[in-house]
Amino acid sequence: MRNAGLNEAExxxxxxxxxxxxxxxxxxxxxxxxxMLTYKLLCENTDHGFNIPNNQSWEMVTSxxxxxxxxxxxxxxxxxxxxxxxxxxxxxNDYNRYRNxxxxxxVVETILNRQSYNRALYEDSNPLTGTVTRYLDSLxxxxxxxxxxxxxxxxxxxxxxxxxxxxxxxxSGTICDHTSGLNGFLIxxxxxxxxxxxxxxxxxxxxxxxTRALGIMNLIIHGMYPEVADVKxxxxxxxxxxxxEEGHLLKFDGILTSPPFxxxxxxxxxxxxxxxxxxxxxxxxxxxxxxAFVLHxxxxxxxxxxxxxxxxxxxxxxxxxxxxxxxxxxxxDLIEAVIGLPSNLFMGTGIPVAVLIINKxxxxxxxxxxxxxxxxxxxxxxxxxxxxxxxxxxxxxxxAYRNHSHIDGYSRSIxxxxxxxxxxxxxxxRYFEKADVETKIxxxxxxxxxxxxxxxxxxxxxxxxxxxxxxxxxxxxxxxxEMTHYLVNLVDVQEGKIIPDGLKGITLAPKRAREYELQxxxxxxxxxxxxxxxxxxxxxxxxxxSFVFSQNFLRVRVSDANGYDPYFIKAFLESPVGQxxxxxxxxxxxxxxxxxxxxxxxxxPKLTLDKQRDIAQLLLRSxxxxxxVIEQARTKHEQHYDESYxxxxxxxxxxxxx
Length: 658
What we know:
Elements: H1 8-20, H2 26-43, H3 58-61, H4 68-82, H5 101-110, H6 131-147, H7 158-168, E1 172-177, H8 184-195, E2 199-206, H9 209-221, E3 229-233, E4 252-257, H10 268-272, H11 290-299, E5 301-312, H12 314-317, H13 321-331, E6 335-340, E7 353-359, E8 369-374, E9 380-383, E10 386-388, H14 391-403, E11 411-415, H15 416-420, E12 434-439, E13 442-447, H16 448-452, E14 458-460, H17 461-464, E15 465-469, E16 485-488, E17 493-494, E18 497-498, E19 504-506, H18 510-516, E20 523-526, E21 534-536, E22 547-549, E23 553-558, H19 566-574, H20 576-584, H21 596-600, E24 603-605, H22 609-648
Parallel strand pairs: 1-2, 1-4, 2-3, 4-5, 6-8, 16-22
Antiparallel strand pairs: 5-7, 6-7, 8-11, 9-10, 12-13, 14-24, 15-23, 16-19, 17-18, 20-21, 20-23
Helix pairs in contact: 1-5, 1-6, 2-6, 2-9, 7-8, 7-14
């Protein structure tokens, strides 16, 4: 390990993986490796308060490969016996179980013992950020990325972990992460305090014993455990561990946390009997536990405390009980900012996330207001399916937050009274006059306020049409009964048309069928997923079959056929303004969903029927001309290739097959 050779870490990780691949799964490799790395580090440094077992130095334990697994287990057991604070940290993995002890010894000899972990031997000996720590961080990070851990479960992305302490901005006092995982947030919070010449005391709680053990070893590697940071084992909602002498929740100056996304078994029954006063703003739904962790954070803050919480977008706009909770905490003026982050930041999930900032001591300029920051487009591609915040992205977010900036399309503070008129939704896109949207004419910048405040007469879609959600066919499908209808699902609509060949036949009772039957002029709009599909049902579609539509669609049925043209409605919804509203109204955590109420609230230009039809015909002719030109170009393209093969003298050797 040379000062400039930290790129060796990734290479070493691949060598370790090659040696252990036949012995264990990727998910087991870090559990095997990290106790060995950490023990070697403790044995080769003296700047810590742990007692190393006599005759159990790293050099002695790994002097040869004979019974290496057994000797490692004995050393770790003795280490925990001598240091009660390490109980259940090093011994969760049984090294006696490995059949091929040679593979363990090979890694020890070729990788671990190739270089010293004695920090004093390197130019940067700082336990928190020095050469040895950076090497070990990089080595372990490679294994974490291979595991593909789900967001919020074990480790958070480095760029997100770097952002949050700057938003919290605490250089003294106490900071807690109630779902601490590998303790990345706590480590970065300590780095931030140290960089600004401060000192903080850190607390964590983790539900998974194995993850807690790895997280504590992570703290040891950074020279933080147990003097600076401590982490307890347990379920934060059902068994909070950090309490004062009277049994009340311990209060903190700051909270940084990324709870598990959309967890269902979060402890609803226990919350109904909660004795800590955490749910006075309301009880979250059984299906989603995100808001329970938000409420726990609110209850765990001091009177002037601040919490910075990573949440899925569902927290910002779910209805029913969560809307009531949002309304209550917004009206108490606890929320200072909502920051929309890019999608694909977390391994294992592509869902977009946001940062929710709770501040019990908001600056005067933000009283009765919430700052919204739309940072969804600020990222770089780290790998194929992974995005990452750049330093410039982090700086832009932090600057906008600290300065309460108004930047067109990026940041804006909104009054609580305006938020109340939007059903207490905290989705950032709802509150920006301008936003970039991908449309049929390319990427466009929408000025929502300019459209809404224009003199153009407008009418809500719900005033001229019925907007209904489709059929969930689970109980209606029958292999025995005669099919009565064909179900239109998302896959059956391609390029604005229904593809009849793959339609699924189902059996419906007449009364139920009438509720979901399609008729000419009905507009279908996809209501699930980020790709929006639309089609208008034609008489030709229904010539030989009766169609019903699935729950993945909304049906827009014009109630006054003489006043509004469904093709015009489709044209508007496909326009830049229409696409803006449809994207702004998308809700959901793992899968985005459009609400029929939100779609019904969209305001369309109020034009005469003749003008609507002129617009629809113009676009129809344009699409037909476009397709004709493409077909002509495709035919010409094929002809040129055929001609070239003829000139090659090979045209007799093949026959085209369609």
